[in-house]
Amino acid sequence: GENVEQHPSTLSVQEGDSAVIKCTYSDSASNYFPWYKQELGKRPQLIIDIRSNVGEKKDQRIAVTLNKTAKHFSLHITETQPEDSAVYFCAASLPPNFGNEKLTFGTGTRLTIIP
Amino acid sequence: KAGVTQTPRYLIKTRGQQVTLSCSPISGHRSVSWYQQTPGQGLQFLFEYFSETQRNKGNFPGRFSGRQFSNSRSEMNVSTLELGDSALYLCASSFLLVEDNEQFFGPGTRLTVL
Asked: What is the mean pLDDT of residues B12-24?
């Protein structure tokens, strides 16, 4: 089955600097890669996602890149702000028509923004 | 439109008891997935239902079961509770279309087993 590895497990960044979180996946058939942000005591919130037919996607200060050949994808947060502090999870999923489209999650990255 | 809802939000049970958790998906979503979140194991997939049929099952013992109703609402049941079942149980719903399979999570049910 799919295996997703996520690094680093913790990351501290000065406010205003950029943060990068990296994930690798094992199943080359995976085609959907969402990123979730989970604040303490709250549900995971989908913040951005990318599909395998796209190499990069950006939404304001957040961007995700995908390298299908190397089977890794990364989350980039620029101009970090205190409210970006949270745990971030990457995930990978097979296409729905595979019948096995469950999300396989990485182990999470605790991001702390230092004011 | 309303998001994914889960009830109850908190539960305290003792070992050996059984528990039923409920999830109502976003209107129009027909797929419901369940995940267990613990500090040690992270987010682990339990099972997924689509049109009242279980499509996928994770690596959990048979004490964990679920079902989905015709209105897409889903329940999961855990029998003979163990201390290790203490966790946040999250459900997520999706349209489950090839180009629209984003999963949106409910607030979770925090289960504590004493």
From this structure: 98
pLDDT at residue A44 in the model:
94
- What are the DSSP E strand ranges found in A1-115? 4-7, 10-14, 19-25, 32-38, 45-51, 56-59, 62-67, 72-77, 86-92, 104-105, 109-114
Cα-to-chain-centroid distance, residue A62 = 10
- CB contacts of A104 in chain B (<8 Å) are 45
CB contact under 8 A, A107 and B42: yes
pLDDT in tens, B43-63: 999 999 988 998 888 889 999
Instruction: Choose among A49, A48, A52, A12: nearest CA to A31.
Output: A52
The answer, yes or no, to whether the previous bond of A34 is cis (omega within 30 of 0) is no
- Does A46 sit within 8 Å of B104, measured CB to CB? yes
A111: amino acid identity, one letter: L
The pair of structure tokens assigned to B62 is: 């048979």
Q: Is the pLDDT of residue A101 over 80?
A: no
pLDDT, tens digit (0-9, with 9 covering 90-100), for A28-38 = 989 899 999 99
Instruction: Tell me which residue in A49, A95, A105 faces B43 most closely, judged by beta carbons.
Output: A105
Q: With beta carbons less than 8 A apart as the criterion, state whether B108 and B90 touch.
A: yes
